[in-house]
Amino acid sequence: MTNIGGRQIPVNDTQLYVVERGPEGTLPLLVLHGGAGLDHTMFGSHLDALADTYRLVFVDGREQGRSARGTDPSSWTLQQHANDVGALAVSLGFARYAVLGHSFGAFVALQHAADFPGAAGATIISSGVPSTRFLDAVEQGLAVFEPEELREQVTRSWADEAAARTQEDCRTLLIDQMPWHFKDPRDPRIAELCAGLQDMVFSPEVLRASSLEGGGLAIEVEDALPLVTQPVLVLAGLEDRTCPPAASEQIASLIPASQLHIFEESGHMTFVEQEAEYVHVVRQFLDAANAPVPRRV
């Protein structure tokens, strides 16, 4: 597997940091991280098995991770993030590419599909929603989240997002929230995942902006989804407390060339909780999307 060290790529009015894994000359998969305010290291090595066939391009989004700082905060919108995706593909010289976004990255990937239908050859929406109305149930879910000591921890951490100022502030908040994102809040893999957060570069400014009434990051694309033309794979965890399966079902019902896969033993962190199945489903989808179209005789 070819692993190219990270580099800055000029994109619109900024530079985005990317890390590439996998052979050149194969279908590039632009991988968009969650957050907002996190970076590509959240994926760890969980997707690396795909790099035997596909070029994985892990992207730190605008003003996040190791990407350039100093853009106008008014540009930190989902529409601009979505525009950056296509501009990045152009800067990298990709005539054809696929997109995978998880959580906040799924919001960006879905906005990109809605704003630029057919620009990507294929799109994967992993733990996303088509409208912020699907996030309204989070508060209700917190009220009954067990165990109780973790309920208080998660509730407090979300309330503290608006006050995050340092790298350690953000790291502590994410660690405190992680039990919420797993089907089993006591899953032993949570500790391993949190240990890996030492390599993450957080963006407190973007985190604060996204915590304040959406900060321009509210996604509302349901009306545009019937116009999406590329194949779309929609992935969801059956026990996802943040982006419920009903949201993924709605996405799949509105996009003509879509397919839905529900991970029965997962919460929000599907690519960690059921890694082998996740990679298998994504690979099958990309193989089909990348297959040559038979010529008519």
Q: What's this entry about, in short?
A:
The chain is of the alpha/beta class and about 300 residues long. The chain contains ten helices and eight strands.
- Report the sheet-strand fraction: 15-25%
Low-confidence stretches: none
The helix/strand class is alpha/beta
Secondary structure: number of strands: 8
Please trace the helix and strand order, writing H or E for each element: EEEEHEHEHHHHHEHEHH
The order of strands across the largest sheet is 1-2-4-3-5-6-7-8
Shape: globular
Instruction: State the end-to-end CA separation.
Output: 38 Å
Helix content: 25-40%
Mean pLDDT: 94
Rg of Cα set: 18 Å
Main sheet: strands, sense, barrel: 8 strands, mixed
**Total number of helices:** 10
How would you describe this protein?
- The protein has 297 residues and is α/β, with parallel strands linked by helices.
- The chain has ten helices and eight strands.
- Strand 5, helix 2 and strand 6 form a beta-alpha-beta unit.
- The protein starts with a strand and ends in a 7-residue tail after the last helix.
